[in-house]
Amino acid sequence: MEVVTGALPSVITKLGELLVGEYKLQKGVKGEIRFLQAELESMKGALEKVSNTPADHLDIQDKIWARDLRELSYDIEDHIDTFMVRVKEGPRFAMGLLPEIRDIKIRVEEVAKRHDRYKISSDAAKPIMIDPRLLTQYEKVTELVGIDEAIDELIKTLEGKNEASMRQHGKIVSIVGFGGLGKTTLANAVYEKISTQFHCRAFVSVSQTPDVKKLFKSLLNDLGNITCDETSDETRLIRVLKEFLQEKRYFVVIDDIWDISIWKMIRCALPDNDIGYTIITTTHKFDVAEVTGIAYKLRPLSLNNSRKLLYRRIFGNQNKDNSAEEENCPDEELAEVSDKILNKCSGVPLAIITMASLLASKARNKLEWYEVHNSIGTGLENNLDVLSIRRLSIQNGKESNVMMAQATRTLQHARSVVVFPSVVAQVPAPSSCHVLRVLELRGCDLSQANSLKGLGNLYQLRYLGLRETRISQLPEEIGNLKFLQTLDLWRNHISSLPLCVVQLRNLICLSIDETTRVPNGFGNLSHLEQLSELGIVGSATNMIEELAQLTELRLLAIRLDKWNNKLSECLCKLQKIQYMYIMGNSSQRSIGGLDALVAPRHLRELNAGTSCLFSTLPAWVNPSLLLDLTQIYIAVTELSQVDLEILGRLPALRDLTLEVSNKNIGILQRVVVGAGWFPCLVYCMLDGFVWPVVFQQGAAPRLRELWLTPFHVLKARGIACSDADLDMGLGNLPSLQTFSADLRYKSTSEALLAQAVLTHAAEVHPNHPRHMILIRREKATDSSSE
């Protein structure tokens, strides 16, 4: 049972802030807060212990207590956040905290007392818990449905050869899928079918809280070595297992692994030997499956197999021998409702078996079966009046308008609301969501007046998503959202932001359109870490000076109508930037405008190709400085072989767009990409280069896409497919999947020969990459244009 701690960690931290902050608290409040903090820390520890306990080992009272405490933690956080907002409006609001804290204290004490009041003695009789996996191990394969194909696939996987199995003389396959899908059943079926091929075999279950010593003893017992000292520790048991299995061909199934560390310990006891072995594991965690071995993803049952399982469980063997391709319901009246129930089960065998048990106890009546269908997966019909919705995602109002209307009227506890465009008209005003933290309205049409009325009352809002909502202005009351951290206004018609935006001192992420003007004073947004897409028109000296004050920026995207000489000085002050995008008009690019830039040491992505031409590769592009750079789009007027090597030595570079000024055509010829260069490069576009560009053996081993556009053919006489001097070395790129070249020529014959060379190179490449090779004549006025 994955019981999370709710808002307790956050609440405990905020209670501490109340104690040490600048809040002027009433006498006696601090003592009450300290009591609450200590009490909640103890409860948090208890909740964590509960969350690590399997559901079948938990007392029902513990489950109820955990649920109540989790809900209470959200209510406490709502009260504290409301106080923190209100207290900034004046000291009179601080006076109201004491009664609220005392009320919270009473509620916390009541939750604890209720748990103790109704706690049943641990000596009382408890129902016997039977692991369902135990039953599946003894179920006849002939009684199973839809498993034959999976058995054949799994055995084929076990018998297949790959690099790992050749190296280890064995095969490890992990069956992975969510609970109830039949992982244990499949593993047991394969175990029964092929286990006789091995010297010894074992089938053991791990569970969420394994006893490793007991697990190793079970392995030894199943494998046939029962001479085990009861006092042996794990180290001794691992040694005994390894020695016993070293000279045997063994088959082991390890069922229900939850943790990678447990698998690693078990693996220590299962040796790689020269005779061969097979290990099957089952897990519901994909990360565990990937570490364990070859992951076999178990699929849900098809609709037809789902029908077979349901009908046979309800109607017995009367339908068992039905050999028709399509399974038919023995009672035609129930066929339609059966399919609707199966759709909700999604092909999960355990869900289907559970539903079959329920339906078998009902009359074979369509109305009763529809009642069962309507009750699945809702649980809201009888409880809407007391529902505390924390997260609400409204996508489609057609199927259950009544339920959605009732749910949206009960939003006073909602913390996160996501609304999709088709139902925006049915959603109440956001002002009804008093404790809302997240409001996502992306794509909803809010162009009508008053669509955002009451927005300023959402004092606790942290995230406001208004992307593509067709709004033309923000209400002034947005300045009330003191805790707002993310404001997404991209793709709207907002000409300018209201002045009150500069009051949002907690803002971390701001997304606007390049045409949206920001108010004076936006440099006061000192916590801002992401700013896109800021439009800088003309000189805009004040704007650039304010931009330089945002020293916490990690992501900056700006668009220039023309180059501004103050920009380089500004960017040198923003040393925490990791993602820098400087877009502009390529026809008005600066030459050398960023040559003197002091690049941030943790820069990950740089795109300045459309706004600035570097004279040469700048000195700050240095492999020893830019250790984290993964993507760069850069344009230079001159590029030497040494410059290309510097780029090739960038240790993390995955995406390169490199443009050379077309004025230098004829100077840059026969570029060589050396062995060991570009070790991580996946995508490469070379713009303005001249035939040929040669890739040596060992260059760019991970390169998947290569684009040469435009690629100038100035001197291609004598080109032939066998001419080694003109071979570009595409065959030396072992990962190449896509290749494109836009050849520019003055002589048609030369271009056709160049096209033939490249086409042949792509066709004989072992990967047979997708390739497109165009030829176009150079224009005298612009050698890079069509």
TrEMBL record:
Residues 413-770 form the Disease resistance R13L4/SHOC-2-like LRR domain. Residues 8-91 form the Disease resistance N-terminal domain. Residues 149-307 form the NB-ARC domain. It comes from the Eukaryota. GO terms for molecular function: nucleotide binding. SUPFAM superfamilies: L domain-like (SSF52058), P-loop containing nucleoside triphosphate hydrolases (SSF52540). GO terms for biological process: defense response; response to other organism. Pfam families: LRR_14, NB-ARC, Rx_N. Belongs to the disease resistance NB-LRR family. PANTHER family: OS08G0170100 PROTEIN (PTHR19338:SF75), TRANSLOCASE OF INNER MITOCHONDRIAL MEMBRANE 13 HOMOLOG (PTHR19338). This is Uncharacterized protein. It comes from Urochloa decumbens.
